[in-house]
């Protein structure tokens, strides 16, 4: 099974784009800065080029991982140890019949939305409680990441063919 690195790279841009929108002063930026104790001066004191490049690299890792929770065919591949040369003919028959099942933007988005609610929210809330951050902080960051990975998951799951996205779930 081929990994679509172009889809992963495009999905890795989503956190940067969403961050620009979500943390804009007219959306949640001002409230978020107050909640974390940042000032305009403190924000200007960092190397933003490094921050954006490193954020893209980390986002690439997130997008790479999201394949594993959105593309069910990776589970079938895992059943044969990840090496198609070890597969029996039944594996290839299965993949011929179901190789594109549930490969859609909507399916990937659904799985990642669930990951946002059931994984990102608890992680963020636990950290926030120990860091003595407010629930406002928790919900701003959880909502950002949930929406962001929902879009990312849709991209990595739905973009599987040379034609581009598959917007409709195939069964």
Automatic annotation (TrEMBL):
Q: Kindly indicate whether the keyword DNA damage belongs to this entry.
A: no
Q: Name one Pfam family in it.
A: DUF1761
Keywords associated with the record = Membrane, Transmembrane, Transmembrane helix
InterPro entries for this protein: DUF1761 (IPR013879)
The portions of this protein that span the membrane are: 6-23, 50-69, 108-130, 142-161
Protein name as annotated: DUF1761 domain-containing protein
């Amino acid at each position: 099974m081929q990994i679509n690195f172009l889809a992963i790279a495009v999905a890795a841009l989503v956190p940067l784009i969403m961050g620009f929108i979500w943390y804009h002063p007219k959306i949640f930026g001002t409230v978020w800065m107050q909640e974390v104790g940042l000032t305009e001066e403190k924000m200007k004191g960092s190397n933003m080029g490094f921050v954006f490049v490193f954020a893209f690299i980390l986002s690439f890792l997130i997008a790479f991982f999201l394949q594993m929770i959105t593309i069910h065919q990776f589970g079938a591949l895992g059943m044969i140890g990840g090496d198609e040369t070890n597969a029996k003919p039944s594996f290839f028959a299965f993949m011929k019949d179901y190789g594109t099942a549930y490969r859609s933007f909507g399916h990937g988005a659904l799985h990642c939305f669930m990951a946002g609610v059931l994984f990102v929210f608890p992680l963020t809330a636990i950290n926030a409680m120990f860091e003595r951050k407010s629930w406002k902080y928790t919900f701003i960051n959880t909502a950002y990441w949930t929406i962001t990975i929902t879009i990312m998951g849709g991209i990595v799951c739905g973009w599987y063919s040379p034609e581009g996205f598959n917007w409709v779930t195939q069964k």
